[in-house]
Specification:
8 strands, 143 residues, 32% helix, 5-stranded antiparallel beta sheet
């Protein structure tokens, strides 16, 4: 009987082990890339959503007063007063009690509000990771 050239069982198992190792390592690398991309995208998205909520038609916030670390707002829909405060996070506080965090991980000393005119405020925020974000919010006219 003549022997035909072929792979041995040991060679097949070694090839399967190398292939599975490459697949597993590629999966880990793709997961790391996705996680990194998602975090940076999520931070930018959170900032845009924060600014959109302040200009939202659901609230119709009117600007009453602006300090470096605090804005006084009036919700024209519900006729309630709120304060947008900047501490270690940006949060909306009801004058009647209670608050809602809006944006977190902020360096207060490098952040602040700057009133541009009767309706617009420039909000500058530096996150604890060093990322600097800035946006201009246009509030409703107070009636």
């Amino acid at each position: 009987m003549k022997r035909q050239p072929a792979f041995t069982l040991v060679e097949c198992i070694a090839a399967l082990l190398v292939t599975s190792l490459v697949v597993v390592l590629t999966g880990y690398a793709l997961t790391a890339v996705r996680t990194t991309s998602r975090l940076s995208l999520a931070q930018a998205t959170d900032w845009v959503i924060c600014l959109q909520e302040l200009e939202s038609a659901d609230h119709h916030f009117a600007l009453k007063r602006a300090d470096r670390y605090q804005l006084e707002l009036r919700d024209l829909n519900q006729h309630r007063n709120y304060e947008l405060c900047l501490r270690d996070r940006l949060y909306l506080r009801s004058v009647n009690g209670g608050y809602m965090p809006v944006f977190s991980n902020i360096r207060v000393e490098q952040s602040g509000f700057k009133r541009l005119d009767s309706q617009r405020v420039c909000i500058t925020v530096t996150r604890t990771n060093g990322q600097k974000l800035e946006g201009i919010v246009c509030f409703e006219k107070d009636q």
